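Chain A, query sequence.
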Amino acid sequence: MLRRQLLHFGAFTLGGLPVSLVRAQGGPQKKLVVVMLRGAVDGLSVVAPHAEPEYAASRPQIALPPPGAEDGLLKLDAMFGLHPSLAPLKRHWDGGQLAFVHASGSPDPTRSHFDAQDYLESGTPGRKSTPDGWMNRLLTALPGEPAPTRAISQGSTPPRIFAGTASVASLGLGPNAMQRRAIDNPQMQAGLAKLYAGDAQLSGTLRDTTQGRSEMARSMAAGERSMDPSADAGAPSARSFAADARRLGTLIRKDAYTQLAFTSVGGWDTHVNQGAARGQLANRLASLGEGLDALSVGLGDAYKDTVIVVMSEFGRTLRQNGNGGTDHGRGNVMWLMGGPVAGGQVLGDWPGLDKSALADGRDLAVATDFRQVLAPLLQRHLGLTETALAAVFPQAPQTWRYADKLMRA
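Chain A, predicted structure.
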């Protein structure tokens, strides 16, 4: 049983070179954090096209008022406005560190949460046989030396996006994310080392696991001392993302070898009582905005070298339904945050909301494949070669849209 547990733990949590070796070689500087909004967030409320007449007409109860009106949108440009609950992020937009790519998403037409999330995380829309996730392939393709904490997955279960042969460090949720476990006991480590001395694979997994957990524990301890101790005190579950996001950012900042990170936030399937500037969706967006801002605060100086990507499996219908909500749709909006981002702009080939432009006559169309946003980011920000890029996103579109507009020169 111990053998199986260790292999499972090592395969999904920690791997790479010993920390001491990586320290001598130096750590990576450019970082990528992916935040997945599970449940299909309503992109037409996140970045609302208030200048389109069809927007308000299709959503008599849940359309956001235009900028300048009571509870109105925060103006981004002549066409789009940001949901007022995302006010904590407006400073990032004004500072040129937040951009959006609208009418983006997967080219596969499924409206199944399970399938759409699988395609978004595997990076191969329409192909269910892909065994690994695109961030795991990215981990193996990154230039430079590996490290036990080069990639971190925050959450209670290993995500599809990190499935694969490369090992990934795991960070739990809540203030006890790095509480001691049996594997941290020196006597347990010594016993397992003796037991697996003749098995190179298990010995390596044990070594990487213990070294990686020790590295994260040191970084977490240093980070917690610099944080406001009241950040987690009495926080309701709806606000837990902010504390977890700041904790993740602090860990990335304190551990110079962490280059990739993934976390997810659920609760975006708003079929009923979605609300407009106030209500169910507004409350969740407020927590999300607070969390993303907290992530940037946790990152500190590392924010200037970090790109944060926020994405969801698909968007929601243009028209509100009979329950004051929205149903499964198609096109959505991708968010890009961070110092390297050429912010202050809404990118994308906007197809419009006229009925003739809608997908299936009901949804915002997907005008930009999500891989056309991610690929140039990986190439320009993380230094991937064309060959490496093809391994991360096989059979992806060959045209990287907005490649010269996403990142700062």
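The chain has one domain: 2-392. Residues 379 and 386 are 8 Å apart (CA to CA).
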